[in-house]
Design brief:
Elements (H helix, E strand, L loop, with lengths): L52 H64 L5 H21 L4 E2 L11 E7 L9 E6 L1 E2 L9 E6 L3
Parallel strand pairs: 2-5
Antiparallel strand pairs: 1-4, 3-5
């Protein structure tokens, strides 16, 4: 029987060369090769051109713009409040002036009435003028300025202004003997003190 040379078995694996101990697997052509290391700071933090720096700056800028807007709005509100307060204060002053003037209108009416009857009985004119004076004093008291023209009371530097010192045996030393000009008002609402003469102290 004739013999043919045997062909090598195609299914048989190629001989594998031994891999030295401790060596890793050979690199494959279909895997990406590691590139050079990325630049980092000495402490391991990202470098100056890291991706998170730009959003942080945008947040700071937005916060600053918002604070500036709120500051401008607060200034505008404060200015409007100041103007409104000035208008209200002026309106209150006008109302108070009108109220005081209206309270004195009856006094003027009575004075004109007294002048109209000036040629009549002189005694009646004096009584009419005294009544008008009392009416004016009452108006001042109603708006918060009572009259002070008392004699025989102790001298009070907050209510009296000494214009003379007299020797009066019938008056206690340091008391008001005569009121030359009445005073009106008390404390912080005092229009003027009463001008008085005071008994001399021993």
């Amino acid at each position: 029987m004739p013999t043919y040379p045997q062909e090598p078995d195609r299914a048989a694996p190629d001989p594998v060369e031994p891999v030295p101990e401790g060596a890793g697997p050979p690199p494959r052509g279909d895997l990406p090769q590691p590139g050079p290391p990325r630049p980092e700071a000495a402490n391991g933090e990202p470098g100056p051109d890291a991706a998170g720096s730009a959003p942080a700056e945008d947040e700071y800028t937005t916060a600053i713009l918002e604070l500036e807007d709120r500051w401008r709005r607060a200034l505008a509100d404060l200015d409007n409040l100041r103007k409104r307060h000035a208008r209200e204060l002026e309106r209150e002053r006008a109302v108070e002036r009108a109220r005081t003037a209206a309270a004195f209108l009856p006094v003027l009416d009575n004075l004109e009435l007294a002048l109209t009857h000036a040629g009549a009985d002189p005694g009646a004119i004096v009584e009419g003028i005294r009544a008008v004076r009392d009416q004016a004093v009452n108006v001042l008291e109603l708006i918060g300025y009572p009259r002070h023209a008392e004699t025989g009371v102790a001298f009070d530097p907050a209510r009296h202004e000494v214009v003379g010192i007299v020797q009066d045996p019938d008056a206690a030393p340091g008391t008001v003997v005569e009121v030359l000009r009445p005073g009106y008002g008390d404390g912080e609402r005092q229009l003027r003190p009463a001008a008085v003469t005071v008994a001399k102290r021993e």
